[in-house]
Amino acid sequence: xxxxxxxxxxxxxxxxxxxRALVSEMTPALRAVKGVEKxxxxxxxxxxxxxxxxxxxDIGLGAQDLFWEAKGAFTGxxxxxxxxEFCQYAIIGHSERRAYFGETDETVNKKIVAAFxxxxxxxxxxxxxxxxxxxxxxxxxxxxxxxxxxxxxxxxLAPKLVVAYEPVWAIGTxxxxxxxxxxxxxxxxxxxxxxxxxxxxxxxxxxILYGGSVTAANAAEFFGQTDIDGALVGGASLKLDDFVxxxxxxxx
Length: 252
Ligand code: 13P
Hints:
Elements: E1 5-9, H1 16-31, E2 37-41, H2 44-54, E3 59-63, H3 80-84, E4 89-92, H4 95-100, H5 105-117, E5 121-126, H6 130-134, H7 138-149, E6 162-165, H8 179-198, H9 200-205, E7 207-211, H10 219-223, E8 230-233, H11 240-249
Parallel strand pairs: 1-2, 1-8, 2-3, 3-4, 4-5, 5-6, 6-7, 7-8
Helix pairs in contact: 1-2, 1-11, 5-7, 7-8
The site of 1,3-dihydroxyacetonephosphate has 14 residues, from strand 8.
């Protein structure tokens, strides 16, 4: 069985002081939720202080991105090794990075390989834009993102992957996908190509999350689907009660 997985992507929200306050408030309630892998992904600046607050808890820490090179003249970038000093996870290929910062399937692929080399678990984001959705290209887009993003990944690493299906039109819009539709995309157009690349058994072991306007009110419906193993939560992960309730809804 796949262990349910819920991660909060704080995006560019919360100063260090604000992040510390929210994490301190959230930690007791999150720790009480058992049987779910729980991860917080605050901005880079807050990773070090939040790591200290999470020490000794069962709550994981993730960066929202990383660069693929190990070190050197890459002004402004953060290496996998730097992230791994404090984190266990890294979000890679988020649609906002694809849309605003030139992320491509090729850079996603390099980052995934680099994240694994540093001992991190990549949370790989894929999903179609509104125009791709409206023109019926969802299947083609997400399967291409999977095949190109995970190209040449060694089979033994694949089970450690976490994939997040985030339809771009559902992110921050309040217009979530229906749970049934998201499950069909995940089962037929994400898990199936994964099976073709890595074998059926491995594909069955990979956690695939849904993301895009997940709330405390709709989370259980997603988690009740056969192929949805959790959520990557944006806006609602900044609200203590909402994020705790979403995490509770993931308990099997
Ligand atoms: P929202 O939950 O705010 O729609 O954001 C989803 C997301 O992009 C998580 O990575």
